[in-house]
């Protein structure tokens, strides 16, 4: 009987922080005692002193830290023994790790504590997390090792067929995985293997897929879960690596759910051969009309219902073949054709694709019916009549025969699908071969054209050289005309005959190469004209874009300048208006009653209230009338 044991006591997050704090204190030439460790951790984390001291003792119990007695050689505690802590050495870590057979942290909650060990895998579980385990023969089997209940079609897949589908799942998981494409660098994270029992990355997982190590999708999913488990333990639940691992597992769950629902749809949707959506699956899906918001009723395949059958997962016909959950009230059978007033082009394409799917499905059913309706001889007829009698008398035998007929139907459909897949593969192979032949032919043509261009340039260069030599010879003949003693008519006859010989040689050489050179020059001229026209179009487009950008920037600058001028003008007007007014010296409101040259009031009450302080600075001339009222006011 399996027992609960404690593999580790301390929290990995606390242990990593404690080790960093101890190393930091030691680097400052100080003794890492409890007080210094607590202060160092509280400066960086919001942990209480009790939690830090508790985890410190548990880390010593797990062997991550060593408790020693140190005597200070300086300071106020000189000569007084005190408790200090040291980090464990790497050699001891390696020796302890080689003896381990199971993980140290719970597979469900990723925390330490009292756990039970699975007898079939290295996973461990807390008592509260091990509710799905089973005991058989005195051995405890965890929930990850339990067999998966699969549909009949998925259950019939071999490990080789499953590996083909899992390769597409791996491709989807790699789309977001940047830091999981290769193993974690243990030189950067030196203590990684002290917390992680089974390191895993996508390259190692893909290697196991190619080795056909998985028999069911659940085995693959539980193996990939090690990446998330390791990230939570070492980096923490809120780290970027953990978020990335969660995103990878979400993609993995979605792909495996689609695979288990219908392996044929999953495989064909990833291979995407020509008209893949119109090929019936091993168990054909029901056709329905699905209504989405803002769209007409659309033809679709019904993939599955939810638990309470309030929503259905459908996949629409058309170019995109999108999936969606549709409410049951918006789904009608395909036999009830809806009224669609506006029929867009996409809807018509979806209808054509659905009709092609129905034709292929009917063809398969007709082939199965012809297999069933084979001619029988008299003995077979008698045997069949006896079987029908037995069916009527024995309902169990009748159900057995019906199941056999259904199985034969399924095998015929499967053979037909395999035959179609082979034919499509042969067509694709022939197309690839034809493409390769055309590519080779194009390369040879390019090589011939390049060699012909080189030969043409060489011939032109030679012709230029001959022309230059002839011009030089003519110049020499003209210089030495007076020196030569031969008669003039002999020299003229000789030059004329030489020119005639050269013309004859040119005429003999020209007919053989003139036609080829003409064709080459025409091709080159056409290429140059096409390239020139293309360059001119691109240049015109670039000029138009640049011109438009400049005009746009000018208009924006002009508008901003107008706004700035208007704002400046309004500001100056407001300032001038403010300057023209007088303001109360007591309450700062607009003043109407002047007192002296720089003091005014808005009301008499403000003047009376401010007169006690203003009378010492008032510049108004005192009255000399001597009346009682003036003396009182002044």
Automatic annotation (TrEMBL):
<dbReference type="InterPro" id="IPR019786">
    <property type="entry name" value="Zinc_finger_PHD-type_CS"/>
</dbReference>
<feature type="domain" description="SAMD1-like winged helix (WH)">
    <location>
        <begin position="6"/>
        <end position="82"/>
    </location>
</feature>
<feature type="domain" description="PHD-type">
    <location>
        <begin position="103"/>
        <end position="148"/>
    </location>
</feature>
<feature type="domain" description="PWWP">
    <location>
        <begin position="284"/>
        <end position="337"/>
    </location>
</feature>
<dbReference type="InterPro" id="IPR019787">
    <property type="entry name" value="Znf_PHD-finger"/>
</dbReference>
<dbReference type="Pfam" id="PF00855">
    <property type="entry name" value="PWWP"/>
</dbReference>
<feature type="region of interest" description="Disordered">
    <location>
        <begin position="370"/>
        <end position="401"/>
    </location>
</feature>
<keyword id="KW-0862">Zinc</keyword>
<feature type="compositionally biased region" description="Basic and acidic residues">
    <location>
        <begin position="381"/>
        <end position="401"/>
    </location>
</feature>
<feature type="domain" description="MYND-type">
    <location>
        <begin position="584"/>
        <end position="618"/>
    </location>
</feature>
<dbReference type="InterPro" id="IPR001487">
    <property type="entry name" value="Bromodomain"/>
</dbReference>
<feature type="coiled-coil region">
    <location>
        <begin position="515"/>
        <end position="580"/>
    </location>
</feature>
<keyword id="KW-0479">Metal-binding</keyword>
<keyword id="KW-0158">Chromosome</keyword>
<keyword id="KW-0539">Nucleus</keyword>
<dbReference type="GO" id="GO:0008270">
    <property type="term" value="F:zinc ion binding"/>
</dbReference>
<keyword id="KW-0678">Repressor</keyword>
<keyword id="KW-0103">Bromodomain</keyword>
<keyword id="KW-0805">Transcription regulation</keyword>
<dbReference type="InterPro" id="IPR047269">
    <property type="entry name" value="ZMY11"/>
</dbReference>
<dbReference type="Pfam" id="PF21524">
    <property type="entry name" value="SAMD1_WH"/>
</dbReference>
<dbReference type="GO" id="GO:0034243">
    <property type="term" value="P:regulation of transcription elongation by RNA polymerase II"/>
</dbReference>
<keyword id="KW-0863">Zinc-finger</keyword>
<dbReference type="Pfam" id="PF24324">
    <property type="entry name" value="MYND_ZMYND11_ZMYD8"/>
</dbReference>
<keyword id="KW-0597">Phosphoprotein</keyword>
<dbReference type="GO" id="GO:0005694">
    <property type="term" value="C:chromosome"/>
</dbReference>
<keyword id="KW-0156">Chromatin regulator</keyword>
<dbReference type="Pfam" id="PF00439">
    <property type="entry name" value="Bromodomain"/>
</dbReference>
<keyword id="KW-0175">Coiled coil</keyword>
<keyword id="KW-0804">Transcription</keyword>
<keyword id="KW-0832">Ubl conjugation</keyword>
<dbReference type="GO" id="GO:0003714">
    <property type="term" value="F:transcription corepressor activity"/>
</dbReference>
<dbReference type="InterPro" id="IPR047268">
    <property type="entry name" value="PWWP_BS69"/>
</dbReference>
<dbReference type="InterPro" id="IPR048589">
    <property type="entry name" value="SAMD1-like_WH"/>
</dbReference>
<dbReference type="GO" id="GO:0003677">
    <property type="term" value="F:DNA binding"/>
</dbReference>
<keyword id="KW-1017">Isopeptide bond</keyword>
<dbReference type="GO" id="GO:0140006">
    <property type="term" value="F:histone H3 reader activity"/>
</dbReference>
<dbReference type="GO" id="GO:0005634">
    <property type="term" value="C:nucleus"/>
</dbReference>
<feature type="domain" description="Bromo">
    <location>
        <begin position="172"/>
        <end position="242"/>
    </location>
</feature>
<dbReference type="InterPro" id="IPR011011">
    <property type="entry name" value="Znf_FYVE_PHD"/>
</dbReference>
<feature type="compositionally biased region" description="Polar residues">
    <location>
        <begin position="370"/>
        <end position="380"/>
    </location>
</feature>
<dbReference type="GO" id="GO:0009966">
    <property type="term" value="P:regulation of signal transduction"/>
</dbReference>
């Amino acid at each position: 009987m399996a027992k609960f044991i404690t593999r580790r006591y301390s929290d990995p997050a606390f242990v990593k922080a404690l080790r960093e704090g101890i190393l930091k204190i030691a680097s400052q030439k100080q003794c890492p005692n409890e007080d210094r460790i607590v202060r160092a951790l509280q400066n960086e984390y919001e942990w209480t002193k009790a939690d830090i001291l508790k985890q410190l003792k548990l880390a010593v119990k797990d062997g991550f830290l060593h408790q020693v007695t140190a005597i200070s050689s300086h300071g106020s505690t000189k000569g007084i023994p005190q408790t200090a802590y040291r980090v464990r050495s790497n050699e001891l870590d390696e020796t302890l790790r080689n003896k381990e057979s199971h993980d140290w942290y719970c597979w469900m909650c990723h925390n330490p504590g009292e756990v039970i060990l699975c007898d079939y895998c290295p996973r461990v579980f807390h008592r509260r997390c091990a509710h799905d385990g089973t005991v058989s023969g005195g051995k405890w089997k965890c929930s990850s090792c339990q067999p998966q209940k699969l549909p009949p079609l998925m259950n019939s897949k071999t490990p080789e067929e499953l590996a083909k589908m899992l390769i597409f799942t791996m491709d989807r998981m790699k789309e977001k995985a940047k830091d999981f494409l290769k193993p974690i660098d243990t030189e950067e994270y030196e203590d990684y293997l002290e917390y992680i029992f089974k390191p895993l990355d996508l390259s190692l997982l893909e290697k196991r897929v190619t080795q056909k190590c998985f028999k069911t999708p659940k085995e693959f999913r539980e193996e990939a879960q090690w990446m998330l488990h390791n990230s939570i333990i070492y980096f923490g639940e809120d780290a970027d690596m953990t978020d990335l691992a969660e995103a990878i597992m979400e993609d993995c769950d979605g792909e495996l759910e689609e695979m288990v629902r219908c392996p044929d749809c999953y495989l064909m949707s990833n291979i995407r051969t020509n008209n893949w959506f119109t090929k019936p699956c091993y168990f054909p899906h029901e056709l329905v009309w699905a209504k989405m918001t803002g769209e007409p009723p659309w033809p679709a395949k019904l993939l599955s219902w939810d638990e309470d059958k309030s929503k259905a997962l459908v996949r629409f016909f058309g170019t995109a073949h999108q999936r969606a959950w549709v409410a049951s009230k918006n789904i009608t059978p395909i036999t009830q054709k809806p009224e669609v007033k506006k029929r867009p082009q996409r809807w018509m394409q979806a209808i054509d694709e659905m009709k092609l799917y129905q034709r292929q499905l009917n063809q398969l059913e007709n082939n199965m019916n012809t297999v069933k309706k084979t001619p029988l001889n008299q003995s077979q007829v008698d045997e069949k009549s006896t079987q029908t009698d037995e069916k009527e008398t024995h309902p169990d035998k009748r159900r057995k025969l019906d199941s056999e007929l259904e199985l034969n139907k399924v095998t015929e459909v499967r053979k037909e699908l395999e035959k179609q897949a082979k034919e499509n593969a042969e067509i694709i192979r022939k197309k690839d071969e034809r493409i390769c032949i055309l590519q080779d032919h194009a390369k040879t043509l390019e090589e011939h054209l390049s060699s012909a261009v080189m030969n043409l340039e060489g011939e032109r260069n030679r012709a230029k050289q001959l022309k230059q030599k002839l011009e030089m010879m003519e110049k020499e003949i003209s210089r030495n005309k007076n020196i030569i003693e031969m008669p003039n008519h002999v020299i003229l006859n000789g030059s004329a005959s030489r020119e005639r010989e050269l013309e004859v040689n040119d005429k003999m050489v020209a007919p053989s190469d003139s036609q080829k050179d003409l064709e080459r020059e025409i091709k080159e001229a056409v290429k140059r004209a096409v390239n020139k026209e293309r360059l001119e179009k691109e240049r015109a487009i670039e000029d138009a874009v640049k011109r438009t950008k400049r005009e746009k920037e000018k208009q924006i600058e002009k508008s901003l300048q107008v706004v700035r001028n208007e704002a400046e003008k309004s500001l100056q007007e407001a300032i001038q208006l403010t300057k023209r007014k007088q303001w109360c010296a007591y309450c700062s409101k607009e003043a109407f009653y002047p007192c002296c040259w720089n003091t005014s009031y808005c009301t008499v009450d403000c003047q009376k209230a401010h007169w006690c302080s203003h009378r010492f600075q008032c510049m108004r001339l005192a009255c000399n009338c001597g009346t009682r009222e003036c003396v009182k006011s002044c």
